[in-house]
Amino acid sequence: MPQGLGLFSLEGQVALVTGASRGIGASIARCFASAGAKLVLVARKKDPLEEMAASLRGAGADAIAVAGHSGKAGDVKAAFAAAVERFGKVDVLVNNAATNPYFGPLLDIEEPAWDKTFEVNVKGYFHCIRELSAHLMKRNAPGSIVNLASITGLRGAPMQGVYGMTKAAVISMTQTLAQELGGAGIRVNAIAPGLVETRFAATLIQSEEILKHVTERAALGRHAQPDEISGAALFLASQASSYVTGQVVVVDGGTTITG
């Protein structure tokens, strides 16, 4: 067990993280590696994913990269098969891969953008959860699923309407599956970040007007960095949260409490 981690240790655990090549996913992968986990990194673009895996291995972790689209059931099955072939099992799933191709009034979105957002943000999460659940039940083993939602799924999301819908669906999925899978010892929780400085959120971060609007409403008066989300993920993945399921951990610097 990594020294000093106690209940937060992931020693002996295998974690599969989607959207792991950058941003929040990469931060979570690094955090889990430091807690002793073996990592299966999944994302669509092979080269940056391989670079991330090599970086983790260079730091002493055991990690593999599996390129694939989580919105495609076949790719998800292949990723889990590669994980089992390499490590023999998967214990923890972090559903982080997401997309948000449209920013603007909800009624103006075109159908391809709508479909793409739901394919990745909802269907992709479901494919991964179903695959992990079948794997854990076959092993008769407990497990933990951590879904990345968003505070846009907790309230109205002007200009990000469909993205907010998908995150509300993730929260609903989390709560339903926590009840349906609890008897098998599988915990399902979600994290709802506020604004985090990633390439994914560049449109928001780079707009002085939007950034000011967000930070003025956060109790901490600022937006987050990716590493400020990974601690919540480690808590939910580890035995430190062994009696926590069906919950949404809001990590937003106090944005939602200020209105």
Summarize the structure in words.
With 259 residues, this protein is α/β, with parallel strands linked by helices. It has one domain: NAD(P)-binding Rossmann-like Domain (Rossmann fold). It contains eight helices and seven strands, in the order βαβαβαβαβαβαααβ. Strands 3-2-1-4-5-6-7 form a seven-stranded parallel β-sheet, sandwiched between helices. Strand 2, helix 2 and strand 3 form a beta-alpha-beta unit. Helix 3 runs parallel beside helix 4. The longest helix has 29 residues. The protein is globular, with a radius of gyration of 17 Å. The protein starts with 13 loop residues before the first strand and ends in an 8-residue tail after the last strand.
Largest sheet: 7 strands, parallel
Order of helices and strands: EHEHEHEHEHEHHHE
**Strand-pairing-aware structural class:** alpha/beta
Q: What separation lies between the terminal Cα atoms?
A: 42 Å
Backbone shape: globular
Work out the radius of gyration: 17 Å
Report the helical percentage: 40-55%
